[in-house]
Amino acid sequence: MSYTDTPLVEIAGLSKSYGKHHVLKDLNLTLPPGIHALLGPNGAGKTTLVNILSTLIPYSAGQARVLGLDVQRDRKQLQGLISLTGQYAAVDGALSGMENMLMMGQLFGLTRRDAKRRADDLLERFELTKAAGKRAATYSGGMRRKLDIAASLIAGPQLIFLDEPTTGLDTRSRQALWDEINTLAAAGTSIFLTTQYLEEADVLAERIMVLNGGGIVADGTAAQLKQRVGGSTIQLHDDAGHIIETLPTHGDAADVAHQLAAISEQRPEVSVTVRKPTMDEVFLELTGAPVPTNSNKKEATSE
Ligand SMILES: Nc1ncnc2c1ncn2[C@@H]1O[C@H](COP(=O)(O)OP(=O)(O)OP(=O)(O)O)[C@@H](O)[C@H]1O
Ligand SMILES: [Mg+2]
After folding, report:
1. Cβ neighbours for 242, distance < 8 A, ≥ 6 positions apart
2. What is the pLDDT of residues 68-97, one digit of tens each?
3. Is there an atom of ligand 1 within 6 Å of 230 CB?
4. Number of structural domains in the chain
5. Fewest Cβ atoms closer than 10 Å to its Cβ: which of 164, 218, 267, 280?
6. What is the Å distance from ligand 2's center to 21 Cα?
7. pTM of the model
């Protein structure tokens, strides 16, 4: 069965409340197949949304379809097509890495032989072959995380939900996981991930959504989000390197050249840098979180 023409995710008027606490408010979203990242501060509702879309918890109102299937009505069917790696590792510490993999394979209805073949391959890709026979309880946090993700891939799902997949991974493991995500995506698997690492969203995702205050406050490519918070700027520095003024620019060569010519004529004493906002600045701006005070970046945004 092919789902290529079907939206990956279709959400209409989706809300989720815990008592009087409205965590998600009237969300509307349609996503095509691909890699999508959900950002948001702690408590924004990222895990809640992932858990709803992966059929773990019910929503309060609205509609949600994943791969064309209703997340509540078609729950069982959908569960065979998706996988979820939760925010907290769900491996069984009493079992070895290999046993965890085989158990997951069995849960998804693979034959033991297929499960073993897939498990060997995945353990190798996640550099866990040497540890495969050891009890998962003896693994480091990062190894557990990798095993958890490897196990979720055993049945070759069409869509993978990853809730903060690289939290706690070292730089090399994070890079390895990014490569793995790109490999999976190139082979036609869609990914819906949440992350606290903005660089991760920037590097991986075709589309980034920022969740805050119960709603999606920004949605677009990394470049579009950066543009939304003001695009590139020209910063003027004094002798000591402090920013004394920040000028907006479209970022294209003609505009930058035009402004630099004026600066060089009128204020030859200043030095200049041209910079794009970082994803961190985009995130802080969009979520209203305070900008760190221990940097003079603050001046740059006080136009
Ligand atoms: N079972 C629950 N009962 C009551 N409130 C809950 C429950 N689960 C989540 N919440 C509340 O919903 C809000 C969103 O939580 P959620 O875990 O979805 O946030 P998050 O964006 O994943 O945060 P983090 O970045 O810390 O993982 C929080 O205020 C949380 O306290
Ligand atoms: Mg969470």
Report:
1. 296, 299
2. 999 999 999 999 899 998 877 788 999 999
3. no
4. 2
5. 267
6. 16
7. 0.81
